[in-house]
Amino acid sequence: MITPPYLLFLGDAPDRLAAKVAQGIRDWRPDYAIGQLRLPGCKADLGLADMTLEEARAAGAETLVIGVANRGGVISETWKEVLGQALELGFDLASGLHNLLRDEPALVAGANAHGRALHDVRIPVVKYPIANGEPRSGKRCLAIGTDCSVGKMYTALAMEREMAAREMKATFRATGQTGILITGGGVPLDAVIADFMAGSVEWLTPDNDADHWDLIEGQGSLFHPSYSGVTLALIHGGQPDALVLCHEPTREHMRGLPGRALPSLEALRDLGLTMAQMVNPDVQVTGISVNTAGLEEAAARDYLAEVEERMGLPTVDPYRHGAGRLVDSLAAIT
Amino acid sequence: MITPPYLLFLGDAPDRLAAKVAQGIRDWRPDYAIGQLRLPGCKADLGLADMTLEEARAAGAETLVIGVANRGGVISETWKEVLGQALELGFDLASGLHNLLRDEPALVAGANAHGRALHDVRIPVVKYPIANGEPRSGKRCLAIGTDCSVGKMYTALAMEREMAAREMKATFRATGQTGILITGGGVPLDAVIADFMAGSVEWLTPDNDADHWDLIEGQGSLFHPSYSGVTLALIHGGQPDALVLCHEPTREHMRGLPGRALPSLEALRDLGLTMAQMVNPDVQVTGISVNTAGLEEAAARDYLAEVEERMGLPTVDPYRHGAGRLVDSLAAIT
After folding, report:
1. Which residues of B touch A189 (CB under 8 A)?
2. Which of A7, A17, B108, B311 has the maximum number of C-beta atoms within 10 A of its C-beta?
3. Contact by Cβ (8 Å): B20, B49
4. Cβ neighbours of A131 in B, within 8 Å
């Protein structure tokens, strides 16, 4: 769908979290990511070679991927200038922003003039059904979080990688633009019409072999007032057999909402189970995934051990220490 | 926006619930509803005069309103024939279906040829913000239900009517096509893009006088897997000060989901409070609204008394016995 390899456009990202689209591609498809392009003031750095458009084309890049998300999405004049130059130099463009490339007349004209493609991966391309709530064959695991951007996608991708290594049947199911850019398919859930949210998740995770696991990418949080409805649609459409709780222990308030504290892992466990049991009475919480990027190694290990003791569940940072123990728990209920 | 009076099109409605759009207009704007048009096989009857298109035009009808909802929305060939004739005879058309009048080439051509308007009230006409979760001045009441179609809109409209009679400051806030058709404005919530659902509800219920009440029309149910995400967005965007629990005691299973039992009123109370307290710690459940249309008068009164005793909350059927006691509860916390 989108032609690799990519030059990852980080724009003027205000912080590392804002570039999580690019970070995800860099971590999970490193062979696709041959360089990064940063504008003045950019606070994100993927550790890739900084390249001009010309340098990246010379190195073989085919697509400029907008790897930075803004709240609500926006394409500034500064960005448009760079994107226009990229089209002139022979790049396709790919974006997961709410504001669409195809809605920018200058970009449409540039793409037409130079025979290039504009990929807006956030736009649904399927007519989804209304959810029917009926049980489906196969197993499903969903990551739910105490907040947005706490590592739900990473957790599912790391579990998929570990399960593939063990030759278990497993498929990562993308529900956001990063996941779609990484895997080439999925549901851009936050852009789906409200009535069809849960149905789109049922569509994404259909009947499968009894021993096959869908690893469903989580979105938002039941506790985040801006996006909680999306999260609940994921739970009720996904009918998970297993929930993995995701948390970021250094977060001072919920993302974008100063003053609003994160819920406890206990509150997330209880509310997640309450909601998931409505569609799957046998659902279990099988593990806890903590994003410890903000902690030193010793502090991270102490924190994980404390949570594991307190909650009685395998507790790991899958990025730092691997997803093996989270997969052990899934394997135990297959 | 839409020109009254209306001829209400009931199509081939399979049951009374399917015609709830028309029923709502007939009950809350009876002066707008001068007749009904039913096709062979129609199982709904509003008790209005059955009229042909010609008879309704002669009686002064300006708009043919599609008053029947189908699951997911559909415009059949049979319907299109009637709608095309209506345009020829000088009707505007208004619809809240997912499938749009404007997407039907024959209807667009007919409207253009005869100078008539096509109103698709389900389509959002505002660019809504992402919710910020910040407190707003004024008070808000939200009806939540054990299921879809249990009387949430009726409850809010009946409370608004009662509050107007008492000269309290109150505004019904429509979140669905019927409410929008009745009041001429609102948010077609189930057609809003997922990420903007909660923000659209914040937009609909802005800062207001400290003693002003928004009566927010509920949608779906936290317990209905097809639509629960929409309900949670209403709770988190609406930041209700008061919740009214709505229930229909003769319902054998959740609407559209055979085999799935309705939750108890206790479960609805507890989960509703858990969710609403995240955005408004002072929220209270102020009353219970029961749709007793399926019960005889004595059985209805017995049922209401039993629930009131069990739950310790004013319990009424606002359609049958008035919304006075529900409004008394609100007045007590103003």
Report:
1. 194
2. A7
3. no
4. 225-226
Q: Which of B191, B193, B232 sits opposite A191 (nearest CB)?
A: B193
pLDDT at B74: 67
ipTM metric: 0.85
Q: Output phi, psi for B331, to 5 deg.
A: -60, -30
HSE-up (13 A, CA, CB side) for residue A285: 24
Written as six digits, the tokens of A295 are 């902690």
Residue A71, pLDDT score: 53
For chain B, strand residue ranges (E) read 6-11, 33-38, 63-66, 92-95, 118-120, 139-145, 169-173, 212-216, 242-247, 284-290, 315-316
Nearest to A205 by CA among A153, A135, A148, A266: A135
Q: In this structure, are residues B176 and B199 in contact, taking their beta carbons and an 8 Å threshold?
A: no
Mean pLDDT (chain B) is 94
CB-CB contact of B187 with B177 (8 Å): no
Partner-chain contact A198 B227, CB within 8 Å = yes
Q: Which two tokens stand for residue A299?
A: 């502090």
Interface of B with A in 46-85 (CB under 8 A): 71-72
Q: Rounded to the nearest 10 degrees, how much is the dihedral formed by the CA atoms of A129, A134, A136, A139?
A: 100
pLDDT, mean of residues B107-114: 97
Which residues of chain A neighbour B236 with C-beta distances below 8 Å? 225-226, 228-229
Tell me which residue in A227, A232, A274 faces B195 most closely, judged by beta carbons: A227
CB B310 within 8 A of CB B249: no
Per-residue confidence (pLDDT) for residue A74, from 0 to 100: 67
Q: Give the pair of three-digit tokens for residue B326.
A: 């529900």
What are the residues whose beta carbons fall under 8 Å from the beta carbon of A247, sequence distance 6 or more? A145, A146, A147, A150, A262, A265, A268, A288, A289, A290, A291, A307
Retrieve residue A262's tokens.
């994160």
Average pLDDT, chain A: 94
Using alpha carbons, list the distances in angstroms from residue A34 to A58, A81, A200.
Answer: 11, 22, 33
- Residue B146 near residue B265, CB atoms below 8 Å: yes
The answer to whether the beta carbons of residues B49 and B107 sit under 8 Å apart is: no
Q: Is the pTM of this model over 0.90?
A: no
The pLDDT of A123-131, averaged and rounded, is 91
Question: Could you identify the residue written with the tokens 């909680």?
Answer: A228
Please name the residue that has the structure tokens 């015609």: B19
Residues A235, A150: Cα–Cα separation, whole Å: 17
Neighbours of B319 (CB within 10 A): 18
Residue B9 β-bridge partners: B37, B66
* A295: helix, strand or coil: coil
Q: How far away is chain A from the Cα of B236, in angstroms, using its nearest Cα?
A: 5
pLDDT tens-digit profile of A68-121? 876 555 688 889 999 999 999 999 999 988 789 999 999 999 999 999 999 999
Min distance B20 CA to chain A CA atoms (Å):
18
**What is the least distance, in Å, from the CA of B281 to any CA of chain A?**
12
